[in-house]
Design brief:
Pfam families: CCP_MauG, Cytochrom_C. The protein is mainly alpha-helical. The protein is built from 12 helices and 4 strands. It folds into 2 domains: about 160 residues, Cytochrome Bc1 Complex, Chain D, domain 2 (Orthogonal Bundle), CATH 1.10.760; about 130 residues, Orthogonal Bundle (Cytochrome Bc1 Complex, Chain D, domain 2), CATH 1.10.760.10. About 35% of the residues lie in helices and about 5% in strands. α4 crosses α7, α9 crosses α12 and α11 packs across α12. It is globular. Bound molecules: heme C (2 copies).
Length: about 325
């Protein structure tokens, strides 16, 4: 029956009008979030932007997950405390609430657990949780904000990470042209983009990149058909489990907003989206795509750029006499 409709439609309409039934697509549209607790989200936003959660007083979550740049830093690997070279490419925080777990190797179960990591990571914000709490507790406006949201006398790490996670859950990007198409706007994609989407499904990209986030829902080996050559020593999930079978296994990254989150792969080795598409086709699927096919898939991937989070810049409450001073040059 479906084939028949297909053929009939094909006879009458242009390629563009051949909108497939969105319910049957391997990718689902992102819906806007409904904010349940605006005060908590606002607090989490302040914390996300507050560099005083770092030893130097200079590095915030936004330094490496810049919301003006697709929630990433557009660097091969991040720059941490004392200009240290980070070990791995910074993934975007956009739509990260949809991930089955956090980090390339999934070592944090969720956003709340993840958020405690960078503050105390010597290669990132290089602080301690106690000192970060001392900073927050020394600032009356923070005390009041935490009190309003959590109703407890003393700010805790649990509350800090809970608020940051609540903010991150709002960082979704609905309204991409692809989502408009999924929702029935046949004109939202041009013929090249639509051909790219067809190819994306046909060659098998959707085996790993599917769902709302077009990824983020499984761990897969990088270099399934052909090994991936990299100078980056990261072993992926094997670094956690010690299992040889998990070597080079990474969380499949989301392809939402992928045109903004270069350079690509865990080692940030590829700057051009076309190159990443070519590498994926060869290494994961054993397929040689020609130039036109690579361009078509790339054109499709660019339709996954959604509405970026937009809000008033959070104004951070000033430090007080009691606030531990930043130590940028220790
Ligand atoms: C110095 C740069 C840097 C800073 C500062 C930083 N991050 Fe990250 N972030 C990274 C890198 C690099 C990774 C990937 C690490 C890995 O997977 O091993 C990451 C991973 C993540 C992830 C997981 C995303 C995914 O798809 O797996 C989230 C969420 C995140 N960071 C949020 C935060 C929050 C919240 C803060 C502030 C408390 C923060 N980051 C501070 C660099 C940074
Ligand atoms: C077998 C699973 C699998 C298949 C099939 C697959 N991918 Fe991937 N994809 C991954 C994994 C795993 C990564 C992360 C690899 C890494 O960083 O080392 C990735 C990364 C990417 C990236 C880089 C994203 C970023 O933010 O760094 C792009 C772009 C991409 N894939 C596109 C595609 C396209 C296009 C296809 C089809 C031609 C495809 N993938 C097929 C598993 C897969």
């Amino acid at each position: 029956m479906r084939y028949l409709t297909f053929m009939l439609a094909g006879a009458c309409f242009s390629l563009n009008a051949l909108a497939l039934t969105p319910g049957n697509e391997p990718i689902q549209p992102i819906e806007p979030v409904e904010v349940a607790d605006p005060a908590k989200v606002e607090l989490g936003k302040q914390l996300f932007f507050d560099p005083r959660l770092s030893r130097s007083g200079f590095i915030s979550c936004n330094s490496c997950h810049n919301l003006s740049m697709g929630g990433s830093d557009n660097l091969t690997s991040s720059i941490g405390h004392n200009w240290q070279q980070g070990p791995i490419n910074s993934p975007t925080v956009l739509n990260s609430s949809m991930n089955l777990a956090q980090f390339w190797d999934g070592r944090a179960a969720d956003l709340k657990e993840q958020a405690a990591g960078p503050i105390a990571n010597p290669g990132e914000m290089a602080f301690t949780h106690d000192l970060a709490l001392d900073v927050l507790r020394s600032i009356p406006q923070y005390q009041q904000a935490f009190d309003r949201v959590y109703g407890k006398p003393q700010i805790t790490l649990d509350e800090v990470t809970d608020a940051i996670a609540a903010f991150e859950e709002t960082l979704v990007t609905p309204g991409s042209r692809f989502d408009l198409w999924l929702k029935g706007d046949a004109k939202a994609l041009n013929d090249t983009e639509l051909a790219g989407y067809r190819l994306f499904k046909e060659v098998g990209c959707t085996a790993c990149h599917d769902g709302q986030a077009v990824g983020g829902n499984s761990f897969q080996k990088m270099g399934l058909v052909m090994p991936y050559a990299t100078l980056n020593p990261t072993e992926g999930v094997a670094g956690l489990t010690g299992n040889d079978a998990d070597r080079m296994k990474f969380k499949v990254p989301t392809l939402r907003n992928v045109e903004l989150t270069y350079p690509y792969f865990h080692d940030g080795a590829y700057w051009e989206l076309e190159e990443a598409v070519d590498v994926m086709a060869r290494l994961q699927l054993g397929r040689e795509l020609d130039k036109v096919q690579v361009e078509q898939i790339t054109a499709f991937l660019k339709t996954l750029t959604g509405e970026q989070p937009s809000f008033a810049l959070p104004i951070l409450p000033p430090s007080t006499k009691a606030t531990p001073r930043p130590k940028p040059f220790d």
